[in-house]
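pasting for the record
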Amino acid sequence: MKKITYFSLFLIIILFSIFWFIGESEYKEKYANLEFINNSGEPLDIVSITLNSKTCSVNRLLASDSLKCIFKNIYDDSYHIEIKYKNGKHLKDNLGYVTRGISFDDILILTSEGHLKLKIRENKEK
């Protein structure tokens, strides 16, 4: 009887490990591809975008220029954006939502009014 119990426990552990590994490997390939476009009409001193404690940033982004960021192995979070204008103005915001298991392809636009707009591009690989 003890042999059956130990064997059952061993089998459960093996099956759990296999399913966990399969699930984790699928999520590790997911990403968030983000393009930030400066349509403010003003140069920016700093643009910093953080997702899942990973930061993509640039010093000096001219008007109409863009910044492209790829965040890999994502999990539930939103984009944390910090912008410092050349004239000293400062903007901080949290936008959007990404979740584990899905790849994202987003565009973040800083408008001439100083607002952030998030556009979601169709991502064929979900």
